[in-house]
Structures are given as C-alpha cells and as structure tokens.
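tokens incoming
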C-alpha cells in the first residue's frame, strides 16, 4: 500500500466511486498537519496552498493563481459551508473535473474499504471536460446499473426527474446515493435517445478478480476477468495466475473491459506479474520529474497473453494494457480505451473534509500519453449494441464462446500459442 505524507496516490477513476457510498476505512488517508478546523478562511487557504504546491499544471489553466488567493482571502466566511462553496468555485477555475473538494461526508464516502463493499447503483462518474455533462466512465460489473444496461460514456441527464444541467459530480452523488433497497431513476442519453433506468440501490461485495480454465479441442486456456484495481486486486490476481499455472494452461485471456481503473500501485504490481523485464509506467509532474516503474524479474508466467479492452477500460486499466502492449508482452483485442492518463493524490484536510488533486500524468513505456487519446488495440473488434445488451442481460455468456470479443481473443491467443510452440521447437537442438 503506497501512502505518502501527502496522501494516497490513485488512478483518476478511483476518485469517482462517489456514486456509491463506500463503507469502512480500509485505506487511511493522511490528515493535514495544519490546525485549520475552526477557521473557514484558513481552510480556503489550505486548499489554495496544496494546489499551489502540487497541481500538475504550473500555469493553473492560465490563471493568475496568486491573484485568486488574494481574492478569496479578502472575503468573509461565516461558516464552513460558505468556505466549501468558495473552494469549489476556486477549483473550477482549473478546468479539471478530477481535482475536487469533498466535504467531510463526501470524503468519508469516497474512502475505499479493503473489503470492496459498496452501497449504491454501481457506476463511476466524471464531468466531461468539454461539455460539462455527467458522463458514466463505466458501470461496475454485477451491480444494479450494470444489470440494467447502463454503458460507459452514457450521459446522465436527469436523476429522479431533476435535470443534471450545470450539476457537478458531488451534487449528483447526493441524489444518486441512498439507503439500500430504495429506488432511483437515472435518465440516460445515448446518442440521440433518452431512456429512463429505474434502479434499486444495493449493497454489493466486489471481488475484483474471477477466473476459470477453458478447455478447447487443442488448448487449455486461462481466463481472468479484472473488474477494478482495488486494494485487494493484486493479491487476487496473483492467486489466480498461480492456480491457473498449476492447472498447466497454455495461455491467457485477461479481460479488462469496463474496468474503470483504481489504485495506481495495484496496476504496477499486477503488471509485474506478467512482465518479467522492462518498463511499466512513468509519472511526470509539473517540474518534469519522472518516476519510472520497472518490472522486477518476478513475473508469474511467460505464456502467451491476449488482453480484452474497450471504451470502459480507463486509468489503471490503461496503465496495465499500455505496458503490456509497449513491452510486446500481450496482444490487445477490442476497442479503443477511455483515455484517462492523470494521477490524483487524495488527502484529508484539517476539518475532516478532503481534496483530490491531479499531481501528474502518466506515460506508457514508449512515452505515449494516453490522456484524452486512449489506447488503440492491436486487433479492433467491435460489439454491436445488440451483442452488448445480450451480454449484459446474461452475464454467464461473458468470457465464453457466446461472447464475440472473447471468441476473437481466443482465436488470436491460439495463434500466439502455436507461434510460441513453433519457436520452442526451432530452439530445441537436434539430437
């Protein structure tokens, strides 16, 4: 677990788990050392100071950041709520939906429990940087939103009939969250059509990894689905690979479709399970200082690997798939990924509230910045709307021959296994 004095470093999309209430405090985020809990104005200045020191863009979105400080400190704040409003207003000037303030309740709900237990509808949200519309990054698998058919990049235009125009993520969270078993209706816009999704809030225990062995007429294949990069994802991934190695599979399909990301360190640890030697990711801050993460010669397998990705594969998913692609460790099959290449640091403030700050961008081993660009798969294979809906309505088909993208991945994997066998034979000395 990577915890620094300045907080816990996460991939961008981990920060928008706030559409569900996260229970527990499995990850303890550091408290600020400043004693500002009783002074609203000092809280405003504390946030300003953190942005001034850490924010990835040294131009602060072409804003005069010092003049902004002067402006906001001249104001009078009679209570914390007025300070919260001012902080959110100040942060909006950065034009970055991932740098955001959370009041104490929102901050508590954001914290990720190591048990992976969530209460809500199971979607991860962001505010589109250009349109400012509330956009679904990805539904979490086997949650109410996922089962109902909510898709990555859907736009939420209403929540229980209330328009979301001009609404930020925090306000949307308050409307979507609620007690287990209660209903909430999301009006979704997809292309030119609007549809009401009537959902029931639920408590969901999420295990990020599931796996099985799939026998074909010619090969034994290992299938691993990774739903999110949570605190226990690396351990579960390691256990899955070790078990499949015991069963002597010939190759692997790693499914990252609709995986919205999560903890940065989890993506690095999982990459090291597949990549024995080579770079994994570089993070670059505003001073241009680069932190490079490398493989450590501890890969759990060197067998052929195919990775499934789509538009819902974001952040930490893109770190992993980008490393596997650049290091030529795997073939990527599916559609272009989401395009989220920013890293946030989350920290507690003096009064129990919290701040998420974009502190760096990440680059793949070849130096690619995928923010807003995404990663193009090696083999493009689209699902039709009907095929996607069919898979969402019957989750037992995912990762089977009834899943067209998976079937394509298997075809590619079999080819790679055949090439590996041929290469091994060619390398075997003639006796």
């Amino acid at each position: 677990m990577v915890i620094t004095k300045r907080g816990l470093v996460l991939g961008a999309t981990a920060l928008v788990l706030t559409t569900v209430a996260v229970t527990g405090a499995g990850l303890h985020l550091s408290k600020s050392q400043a004693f500002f809990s009783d002074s609203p104005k000092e809280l405003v200045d504390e946030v300003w100071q953190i942005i001034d020191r850490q924010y990835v863009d040294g131009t602060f979105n072409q804003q005069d950041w010092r003049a902004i400080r002067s402006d906001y400190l001249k104001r009078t704040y009679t209570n914390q709520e007025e300070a919260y409003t001012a902080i959110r207003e100040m942060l909006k000037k950065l034009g970055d939906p991932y740098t955001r303030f959370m009041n104490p309740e929102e901050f508590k709900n954001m914290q990720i429990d190591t048990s992976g237990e969530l209460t809500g509808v199971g979607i991860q949200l962001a505010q589109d940087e250009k349109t400012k519309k509330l956009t679904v990054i990805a539904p979490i698998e086997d949650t109410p939103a996922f089962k109902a058919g909510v898709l990555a990049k859907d736009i939420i235009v209403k929540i229980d009939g209330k328009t979301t125009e001009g609404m930020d993520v925090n306000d949307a969270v308050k409307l979507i969250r609620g007690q287990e078993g209660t209903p909430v209706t999301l009006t979704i816009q997809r292309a030119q059509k609007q549809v009401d999704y009537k959902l029931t809030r639920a408590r969901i225990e999420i295990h990020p990894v599931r796996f099985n062995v799939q026998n074909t007429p010619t090969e034994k294949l290992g299938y691993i689905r990774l739903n999110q990069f949570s605190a226990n994802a690396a351990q579960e991934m390691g256990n899955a690979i070790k078990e499949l190695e015991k069963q002597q599979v010939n190759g692997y399909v790693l499914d990252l479709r609709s995986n919205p990301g999560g903890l940065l360190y989890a993506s690095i640890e999982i990459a090291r399970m597949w990549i024995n030697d080579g770079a994994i990711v570089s993070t670059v801050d505003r001073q241009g200082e680069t932190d490079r993460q490398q493989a450590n010669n501890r890969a759990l397998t060197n067998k052929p690997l195919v990775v499934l990705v789509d538009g819902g594969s974001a952040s930490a998913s893109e770190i992993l798939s980008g490393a596997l692609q650049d290091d030529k460790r795997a073939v990527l099959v599916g559609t272009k990924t989401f395009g989220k290449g920013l890293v946030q640091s989350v920290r507690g403030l003096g009064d129990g509230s919290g701040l998420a700050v974009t502190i760096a961008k990440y680059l793949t081993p070849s130096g690619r910045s995928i923010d807003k660009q995404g990663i193009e798969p090696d083999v493009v294979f689209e699902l039709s709307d009907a095929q996607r809906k069919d898979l969402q309505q019957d989750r037992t088909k995912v990762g089977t021959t009834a899943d067209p993208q998976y079937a394509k991945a298997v075809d590619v994997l079999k080819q790679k296994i055949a090439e590996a066998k041929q290469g091994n034979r060619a390398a075997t000395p003639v006796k």
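note: The longest helix spans residues 404-427.
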